Amino acid sequence: MQDKKITDLLESFQAIGRTKNQGYTRTVYDQAWCQAQKQCVNIIKELGLVPWVDEIGNLYATADLTWPKEPVILVGSHLDTVVDGGLYDGLYGALAAVLSVSQIVKSGQRMGRPLVAVIFSEEEGSRFDATFTGSQYLLGRHLKDFEHLVDARGQTFGQIRQAAVAALSPFVQTASRLKIAQYLELHIEQGPILEKAGTDIGIVTTIVGQERFLIQLAGQANHAGTTPMDCRDDALRRAVGLLADLYRELAQIPDLRYTIGKVQLEPNVANVIPGLVTFALDLRHQDQSVLSEAVGVVAELVDRYRAKLERTTAVMPTQMDAGLQEEIAGACQSVGLTHQFLPSGAGHDAQVMGEQVPTAMIFVPSVGGVSHVPEETTTPADLENGQRVLTAVLAKLVG
Ligand SMILES: [Zn+2]
């Protein structure tokens, strides 16, 4: 596999988790995820590296059979997708990381620090109401913080995690969690800025903070025909008021991104008055004080409607390391590519890592600026450019 390109590696995933809409669904620990993990293990071995798996299902690739004890230079991204997502979000950076590590190892360059690629088990939060579980675990969160979570089909995180990781048992290591000196992540931009500007490479300055909530509003389920209108406690009717107020009040906060992307009714039957409405609210901003103000507005409204508020994600805005940003700019120059600095409006594992270790992110253009949909794509030239820059940066960092 000496001359494999990033595009070849990505192509080998085209049949895994493919949906009828020509997108990809790989939620953590599902069948497609397990298949994709196995394919990653094959690639790691074929590229001459050693695969390892930890107990949450993060997959690592190292140069030799010794699990590194000293701090490593870590490079990677995530394996999971949103439902009906594209081929490139997460997987591109994960495979590029493995390929870049293998190229540096093969080059025979002396390595002052161990270089490790990581493919995080989960980042998107598309199966359980928790995000970044892979990178959070690596940084010291306990499994028991996630094990009780239940997916839409009633399966617990704990049960399915054990089954999924057991399938990779020959590679499981329980020696210790990695110590990390620096973390790098290559990712598609998922927005229109680089393409519009005609720039080859984006260097991320900061990643927006993110708060995600589950809001529950309870009423009384009852018969649609026999319950007079003035005797009803219709959960949906009240929820509509709360939703309208949320949209109106949150719109007053400049540059806030707010999304209600998931709404569930119970019992969700045509002839029964809704007894319970649950919806998810996602808030993002690059300034933590603005984000906190938005959370205050939400809490007050939820209280006014006697609803219940549960915070499922809270990630602070994260500055990327200035020194690493300069290294990436230098690498772009050395391989003859243009670059620009930009913030990331999407959350990434780099955000979690950046809270504890010097971290940086490299973006490549997204065609049409679209992502989290089957149409998500990046040109082969841009895919290769990003991976070349990644290799150049890593080669400098380990030297
Ligand atoms: Zn991603």
UniProtKB/TrEMBL annotation:
Domain of life of the source: Bacteria
**EC number(s) for this protein?**
3.5.3.9
Annotated keywords: Hydrolase
Q: What is the enzyme's main class?
A: hydrolase
Q: Which Pfam families match?
A: Peptidase_M20
Q: Is Hydrolase given among the entry's keywords?
A: yes
Matches recorded under Gene3D superfamilies: 3.30.70.360, Zn peptidases
Molecular function, one GO term: allantoate deiminase activity
Q: Which InterPro entries match?
A: Amidase_Cbmase, ArgE/DapE_CS, Bact_exopeptidase_dim_dom, Peptidase_M20
Q: What family does the entry list?
A: Belongs to the peptidase M20 family.
Designated name of the protein: Acetylornithine deacetylase/Succinyl-diaminopimelate desuccinylase or related deacylase (ArgE)
Gene source species:
Fructobacillus tropaeoli
